[in-house]
Predict the structure.
Amino acid sequence: MPKTADIRLPDPSRWKALAFIALAQLMVVLDATIVNIALPHAQTALDISDANKQWVITAYALAFGGLLLFGGRIADLWGRKRTFVVGLIGFALASALGGAAQNQAMLFGSRALQGVFGALLAPAALSLLAVMFTDAKERAKAFGIYGAIAGGGGAVGLILGGFLTQALNWRWTFFVNIPFAIVAAAGAYFVIREPAGSRNRASLDIPGVVLSALGLVSLVYGFTRAESAGWSDGLTIGMFVASAVLLLSFVLTESKVKSPLLPLRVLLDRNRGGVYLSLGLAVIAMFGLFLFLTYYLQVVKGYSPIRTGFAFLPMIAGMITGSTQIGARLMTRVPARKLMGPGFLVAAIGMLLLTQLEIGSSYVGLILPAQLLLGLGMGTAFMPAMSLATHGVEPRDSGVASAMVNTSQQVGGAIGTALLNTIAASAATAYASSHTALGARNPELLKLQSMVHGFTGAIWWAVGILVVASAIAVTFINAGRPSAGPATGGSGSGEADGAEDEFRVPVVAH
């Protein structure tokens, strides 16, 4: 007989805690795009070569993506509140180091440290929500807010990055993290009360840590290198082969060790597996879009960095609306797949509009409605995805389950940037080669037309990827709607017997 869980009264400070968790999430998401805007200025100031400039992004991506599972396990073992606060303090110190960088080595090192502490912070934040909000309706609202920030924060980073770079200097794109981190850490320390009995105190799986970190680093670096060196490059192929061997060894190790880093029960549940896979695919499409639209608006349309950031506001508005007004309101009424599947399809329709981009395309007539559809679709889909990814897991596994959400997004982002940018570059080269006569008359026009042709060619792939994400969500995810009130026991797998059955929110057993 399973142990009956005691009914735990809701934490009276949970909504205050959400504010500080959301602030920390905003800081991490902002950092992903805010540095991109400042990169050209930092490159000039520190005399970074074109060949090395990618390491400002890559150093962070490798540390963050490679250590996420380890960070999630540390949160389960050490305590989510403590891990969250340590992650915030470390992220602030690493940001201060980056802002004060005097050479490229110092900047690259600070970015790697940001990735290390971000890998502690991100899964701890999501798993805190998972264990603090157990009532289905409150959980929907909390994850709606979290999902809106996760989806729209990157575009806010473009605005803030442009403003700080133009009004002050590039160093402030690092220094701005410090007040975010201090406020969030102080608030978390005094407000968050982690539920008792939710830690996993089993010994740390060292082989799993090493294999997962090396495997994910190889995978992320393989895609990052492919973008600059090409898919046929020897080291690129070597990284992919090494990644496959290491990750397969990781899975085999996890199936045998007594206390695995990533219990396969977390990964193999069809609902969570469907969330991880569909979310990763959707992020591939989204990261490519941010890249293409940023270049289109700045290079083709001549927008300034600040104006480019503001041009992304309709997408932010759509994401917030989709997440808080559609996803959060309907999550307790309909099964998750009926939000995620249609949500990804709506986003695909928005992406489809952008395949019509031309040099003279109207922002109001084409780009704005496309962004609104993209935002609405992604916000509607992300919100139940974030919640379902940690639904039904045993409290001791919530850290690694949360880490898998971040891992799927991080790996998806690395793949999206490399894959779609490579497709766009190939299409642009082919277009230029077939229009040499135009190049002889007007080389600048040919350059812009080739660029836009490359963008639209890659965006067609993004449309297809979103359609596949929608199909996976509808096919794999069979959990029903959450019950209206808190569960009274059990910590089931989260998988419903039937498509319309209800799944219950787990309550921590004392």
